[in-house]
Specification:
Number of domains: 2
CATH architecture of the largest domain: Roll
Structural class: alpha+beta
Strand content: 25-35%
Distance between the termini: 70 Å
Largest sheet: 6 strands, mixed
Number of strands: 12
Radius of gyration: 23 Å
Shape: elongated
CATH topology of the largest domain: SH3 type barrels
Amino acid sequence: MRLKTMTTAAALTVAAFAAPAIAQEAGASIMGNDGKVVGTVASNDGTTVMLDTGAHQVPLGPDMFAQADGAWSINTTKTDLDTMMDEMKAQQMAALEAALVEGAAVVTADAMPLGTIEMIEPEAIVLTYKEAPLTLPKNLFALDGNGAVMVLANHSAIMAAMNTSDS
């Protein structure tokens, strides 16, 4: 009898702590601390819950959510979450604009050197790649985790798009 009680208690403890990590399934509505819908779960891989607010896809840890009265909630509002994401994107864009300067080295998404920036146009960036110009749309550029300018494509994809086997 005592073993059964201990086993039941252990199972209940595991169930209580395991539920939050997998509970937010795609399609679930998430409520804010104001009682209004913040967004819908777009995906959950067990470590990151992608919350779609309608304006942003917001990656959050599963421990950011609580369940009460059969509904999932987060301790913020849609307005606050969207404002935070707008501010973060504005900071990222400002940092990218500051880094997009003539002479800056550019790498690919797989960390391969691609060339240096030669000219910045309103919608495109012209690089020098192996002594030849390479023009890419400005929206393909970002900063990597170290703040270096990178193109959001792998080296092989860029070479394939250029229709060359040069690597």
